[in-house]
Design a protein that fits this description.
The protein is α+β, with helices and mostly antiparallel strands. Helix content is 52%, strand content 10%. Strand 3 and strand 4 form a beta hairpin. Helix 1 packs antiparallel against helix 6 and helix 7 packs across helix 8.
């Protein structure tokens, strides 16, 4: 019988494949196309995934080495900078070389993920994570950085119900979105009601909550991964819901500011 972790592993592979289909046949010039992330090209987006898919594999199979590389990454932040540290090797590669490296690293990750159980805990860049959260974070990163690639290339990548994983992560990281900014989350429950790509209704939070966020699951995922400003979506929300969405950050690291509003919703 397929369990939830098996389904998540399969969805991670499918998310990898969906992005691979976007970049598999682009020419060398396209790899150097600027993306919405300032200073990052399409190649940088894939290089970022390549680096952290490798790091995720180490976290599973060699925690001691992962910790050594984590310390090196932390030290780099005060010197050359994190982007230079994580992308330097990949910025010397051609597009085809980078694609091969990404495919190799994500294959290793998917093989390592097959050894996990729901009780597994894994070191990462911050608190340790349970197996489900760990793999969901990889899926979220693949989709989010893939969104930048899709936007830059004006490509097509249909939304799927895999977004439910990202939406749930977005809900679960509401408190983190405040803590990472040194703030306390306002008191009060928020009801989140979303419509998935195939028309299913997804919801989190008490039915009788006074505060709420409603709308497209894809729009919600774009906001919590900081790929769209909330004002450029069709989401609706209460006062507390908007307060959260303006800070929403479903990923680790320091506080990050998403894109400014463009007024295109």
């Amino acid at each position: 019988m397929t369990n939830a972790l098996d389904e998540l592993r399969a969805d991670l592979v499918a998310e990898h494949d969906a992005l691979d289909a976007v970049v598999a046949t682009i020419d060398e010039d396209s790899w150097h196309t600027s993306t919405p992330s300032p200073g990052w090209t399409v190649a940088d987006q894939i290089g970022h995934l390549t680096f952290f898919d490798r790091s995720a594999t180490l976290s599973i199979v060699d925690a001691e080495r992962f910790q050594e590389e984590l310390l090196a990454l932390i030290e780099s932040a005060a010197g050359e900078g994190v982007d230079e540290f994580t992308l330097r090797a990949y910025r010397t590669m051609s597009g085809s070389e980078l694609l091969h490296a990404w495919r190799h690293n994500r294959t290793l990750l998917n093989e390592a993920a097959s050894t996990l159980s729901e009780s597994s805990r894994l070191p990462w860049y911050g608190p340790s994570m349970g197996a489900k959260s760990f793999l969901t974070a990889r899926l979220m990163e693949t989709w989010a950085h893939g969104t930048d690639v899709v936007d830059a290339l004006r490509a097509t990548r249909p939304a799927t119900d895999r977004l439910r994983h990202i939406a749930q992560l977005g809900v679960l990281t509401r408190g983190w979105s405040y803590r990472v900014r040194g703030e306390d989350a306002p008191e009060g429950e928020i009801r989140v009601e979303l419509i998935g790509p195939t028309g299913d209704s997804w919801s989190w939070g008490p039915n009788d909550a006074d505060e709420w966020v409603r709308g497209s699951a894809e729009d919600f995922c774009l906001v919590v991964t900081q790929r769209r400003h909330v004002d450029d979506t069709t989401l609706t929300y209460s006062e507390l819901g908007r307060d959260w969405l303006l800070r929403a950050q479903a990923f680790a690291g320091g506080p990050s500011i998403g894109p400014p509003a463009k007024g295109i919703a």
